[in-house]
Amino acid sequence: MNQHEYIDLPPLMSARGTERLPGSKSISNRVLLLAALSEGVTVVRDLLKSDDTDRMLEALAALGVAVEALGGNAYRITGCAGDFPNKDATLFLGNAGTAFRPLTAALALSGGSYELSGVARMHERPIGDLVDALRQLGARIEYMGNEGFPPLRISPSKLAGDTAQVRGDVSSQFLTGLLMALPLLGRTVKVEVVGELISKPYIDITLAMMARFGVDVQRDGWQSFTVVAGSRYFSPQEIYVEGDASSASYFLAAGAIGGGSVRVEGVGADSVQGDKRFAEELAKMGARITMGPNWMEASGPAEGKLKAIDLDCNHIPDAAMTLAVAALFADGTTTLRNIASWRVKETDRIAAMATEFRKVGATVEEGADYLRITPPAQFEHAAIDTYDDHRMAMCFSLAAFGGAGVRINDPKCVAKTFPDYFTEFAKVTQAVPVIAIDGPSASGKGTVAQRVADALGMHYLDSGALYRLLGLAAQRHGVALDDEAGLAALAGRVDIRFEKGETWLDGERVGDELRTEEAGSAASKVASLPQVRAALLDKQRAFRQSPGLVADGRDMASVVFPDAVLKVFLTASAEARAERRYKQLKEKGMGANIAALLQDIQARDERDMQRSVAPLQQAQGASLLDTTPLNIAQAVEEVLTRYRAIS
């Protein structure tokens, strides 16, 4: 996990569009293993490309299974009919539970010597109940570390017994692994589930996939499952992996929160995945849901906000995390129950969700198997820790709809199931728009930006004033202008606001003192310090609020708001700028010399262009607007015309 890497998601206003989903992780790894255990050759299409499937593919290759990449997320698997060619192998399976648990069972019943390990978190995820069930069938499995947890050593053994018992209340992957491996024994074996079976829809997926490969499992409700003698896996020759229903939940929730409509393709009413029922539960919160055989679509409520719910989530354990984040936007307190399995996932998801919800301002109550969420009165910008858990990263992206934006730490953890998630999420979401206006001193950018903001009803950020205000605050607090650390700390503390054409510093209105040459000189010194610019970055981004922001300043278009929908570099000849400055000063009753002003502007331009930090230059993607022949009203109208052309 790399907490030094992050992605900043801006405040989001709406969501609409279509997303073609990646393949299901649960189906992908089941199909790969079943294809390997089958007689014949299977072409698997639309396989999920992710860390979990990479670990399974690597493991199968290490076991001697012929795996051929065909391109386009398709693979040709030559089955070994349950007899792995390599009888001695060491496998590293990362944090892939959908690979570790089924491979443990298959290898324990296949007569070889194997060692299985993973990342540190995998070694904290229990596997004792599966090991106990396999030992009842004669398997020899040793714990290489802590009792009941990976890593494991498997040795050849004399397999016997026709009944095994497995607990159902920790993870459905234990039963899945056991059922998928039983045809290797060649005799009738019955599995009895002890206690309540959680995550039943995932067992439905297992049974459906086994049936596609020719093995029908007899079952008595959810209490016992029987694989009869003579059951063998045969290749279906070609199989397509459904889109991932858990991944669909983030886009459907975005549609419900952001107005919609958002359509997901690859999973629908005909899906074998239990998480397709997420859409039903989202509808209970007031979302408008439509679906077809292979697609689903979500929009916001016809009126008002989403509604809070009280829900038993046993049937959608993974997608329930997305409901939890949707609860941040609901009217009332939402309670999600029967989610004890969250505690043994990639991280302790109940504890992790509660911790991160509190960061954005929500009130949370957590129990052994439930979570209760009351939305914040006002969202706070937060840096969300993801605990090397892909679903934490993806579901908390939805918090960006709260108006404050959100930072997601270690965003690359989504590679476990959806490597391109943030790119795809950006395609169906619309951020609060930003117009970034830059230009040299006295080009009129501040006046133009303020009037554009007024015309569009948007917020306004004068970044130059931020540095002037910091210089003024430094003077008031006795911080030297060359004390970089002290200024950076001060930048994080001061309260700066721009309201109705007026500027406020720590609750006090500030006027013409910001426009003095002394203030400008102090701002220039302060703005050249990297630590100060970094400290003011979050403060500047906090001005981005609905319905939009017009920001003027040196690095608005390149560093602060690189995703600005319109970037304008405002310029004018040095002579025109000197004349404008002269008129401004005269109107204020201040003495001025136009020749001196021209010299000062030319020197300022040269100095600004040579700066090592945020030099004066036209940002990439910015359009040039030469205002030499224009008055202020004409310059404002030109910017508005350019904005309307793209909005």
Describe the protein in words:
It contains 21 helices and 34 strands. It has 647 residues and is an alpha/beta fold. Strands 16-17-15-2-26 form a five-stranded mixed sheet. A five-stranded parallel sheet has the order 28-32-27-33-34. The longest helix is centred in the C-terminal third of the chain and has 17 residues, at 594-610. It is elongated, with a radius of gyration of 30 Å. The chain starts with 5 loop residues before the first strand and ends with a helix.
> Rounded to an integer, what's the Rg over CA atoms?
30 Å
C-alpha termini separation: 39 Å
Return the structural class: alpha/beta
How many H/I helical runs? 21
Strand order of the largest sheet: 16-17-15-2-26
Write a brief structural summary.
This protein has about 650 residues and is an alpha/beta fold. It is built from 21 helices and 34 strands.
Describe this protein with a few key phrases:
UDP-n-acetylglucosamine1-carboxyvinyl-transferase, Chain, Rossmann fold, alpha/beta, 36% helix, 647 residues, 23% strand, elongated
